[in-house]
Amino acid sequence: MMLQHKNAIVYGASDSLGGAVAHAFARAGARVFVTGRRMEPVQKVAADIVAAGGIAEAAIVDALDPEAVEAHLRQVVDNAGSVDISFNLIGVEVQQNIPLIDMTLDDFVVPVKTYMETHFITATAAGRQMVKQRSGVILSLTATPGGIGYPLVGGFGPSCCAIESFSRGLASELGPYGVRVVNIRSAGSPDSHPFLDAINSNAPEVPLFLDKLKNDTMLKTLPAMADIANTAVFLSSEMAGKITGITLDVTAGTTAALNYNMMTIPLK
């Protein structure tokens, strides 16, 4: 198994994307430590992993609290011996669908500040431990606005760009110690809870919005949670041992496709 004998911490391991990543890590052989601000959802993820034959432990950890993150990380090291993978997948409330010129300062700044704080806290905590080990992988996740200008996403777009820049900078500092830092860029997964909740709301604008997202990609589809989870497994494995300091695009081609949406190329 690709991640056998590895210990992985997943922050924000709910029953959506964080849970999907945790399950993928476990199937690949990792011992997974799933965390969140509420015990019930992370306990369910851990229990499902164990029921499927994997190894998982759940804990309440506020990924915006440096002391809580450090205490949990020390506990993992004490019990498991190392932290080999750290992946921050917490969700943040973002005000969107408002033009930037009509947005309040607080609505714009809050996601930028919150995302950067939590990624700094969890990534640097993991980095300090991994430097001692001289090994490890730190992962983060952004979305399409990290690669292109995308309208009506408020502070989320700058947040994605900031996370990607932070990931590159951290990779350059930790690389000499054998620690890799990689970001995954997704276009959003239609089988994740934010999308499913929107679909189930039966709001008339939702199908149009999903069609737009799909049409903005080269492949005319969106990545599923499994696509992101499988990418995370690969990046955490020795197969990706020379990959660091980059953002791996798993948007089905959104980054380069958007500017060409108005062009129609007939198929022959």
TrEMBL record:
It comes from the Bacteria. The keyword Transport does not apply. The keyword Oxidoreductase applies. InterPro entries: NAD(P)-bd_dom_sf (IPR036291), SDR_fam (IPR002347). CDD domains: SDR_c (cd05233). Keywords: Oxidoreductase. It holds the Pfam family adh_short_C2. PANTHER family: 5-KETO-D-GLUCONATE 5-REDUCTASE (PTHR43669), ALCOHOL DEHYDROGENASE, PUTATIVE (AFU_ORTHOLOGUE AFUA_3G03445)-RELATED (PTHR43669:SF3). Belongs to the short-chain dehydrogenases/reductases (SDR) family. This is SDR family oxidoreductase. It comes from Chitinophaga hostae.
